[in-house]
Design goal:
The radius of gyration is 16 Å and the shape is globular. The protein has 193 residues and is α+β, with helices and mostly antiparallel strands. The chain is 44% helix and 27% strand. The chain has a single domain, classed as Gcn5-related N-acetyltransferase (GNAT) (Aminopeptidase, 3-Layer(aba) Sandwich), CATH 3.40.630.30. A 7-stranded mixed beta sheet has the order 1-2-3-4-5-7-6, with helices on both faces. 31% of the residues are buried. The protein binds coenzyme A. The site of coenzyme A (COA) has 22 residues, from helix 2, strand 4, helix 4 and helix 5. It holds the Pfam family Acetyltransf_3. It comes from Azospirillum endophyticum. InterPro entries: Acyl_CoA_acyltransferase, GNAT_dom.
Length: 193
């Protein structure tokens, strides 16, 4: 299982590289539409880290999966949405499920009551995944929207996030990922290639 941990703002180049590596079908599924390389880069550059949490799945130091949780406390208090992507080499191994489970805990711990996710109607994996975590699915203009209703945070949910953050830090060090992530992006890409 890859190391699942939060992605730091300094690791934005890795997130961008991950999204650009998605094959055509997965990129289409991730953004529910066609997106050029330039548009993917613009998406990454526009991330507002004050209202976004990114969780990543790192394998051998390379970001292979990510979930992006985005909310707006002023315009959309207590609500957020997420988009998720796992590269084809890691699909079907439970990475998507782990990312969704953990991001829902992160959302809950920030007082978010409702999390939305949008996917294509034919996206069987994502629909299965949403159902597994209690998402209420609805068909909306050929796309599926999933609504996750979250309970308020409690001591256990806060402890769980802290525990998993701590375990991820240790696993990162053990896997050498922490060392790689301190290297400049270009050198990191060369080492990981
Ligand atoms: C959707 C996606 C995130 C799932 O990630 P993943 O790591 O493959 O997910 P998991 O391995 O945890 O499996 C998720 C579910 O799909 C099911 N599944 C796995 N392989 C499958 C297959 N070949 N066919 C059908 N279902 C499959 C699993 O059984 C699981 O369902 P369960 O929870 O009921 O057991 C990944 O396929 C992806 O990145 N797709 C492209 C981007 C995308 O579609 N994003 C969603 C919109 S934002």
């Amino acid at each position: 299982m890859p190391v699942i941990r939060k992605i730091m703002p300094t690791e934005l180049p890795q997130y961008r590289a991950h999204l650009l590596r998605l094959d055509r079908a997965d990129r289409y599924a991730r953004f529910t539409g066609t997106l050029s390389d330039e548009a993917v880069k613009r998406h990454c550059a526009a991330i507002d880290w004050g209202r976004t949490v990114l969780l990543g799945a790192f394998e051998d130091g390379l970001l292979r999966g990510a979930v992006e949780l985005c909310g707006d406390r002023i315009l959309w208090p207590e609500q957020a949405e997420f988009g998720i992507s796992v590269e084809s080499v890691l699909q079907g191994k439970g990475v998507g499920s782990t990312l969704v489970r953990r991001i829902l805990t992160v959302a809950r711990n920030r007082g978010i009551h409702q999390v939305h996710m949008m996917c294509l109607a034919e996206n069987v994996r994502m629909r299965a995944l949403a159902r597994r975590f209690g998402g209420r699915l609805a068909l909306d203009c050929g796309e599926i929207t999933s609504l996750f209703e979250l309970p308020p945070p409690n001591q256990f949910s806060i402890a769980l996030e802290a525990l998993e953050d701590g375990a991820s830090a240790f696993n990162s060090i053990l896997s050498g990922n922490a060392i790689l992530s301190r290297l400049p992006a270009a050198r990191h890409e060369r080492l990981a290639a």
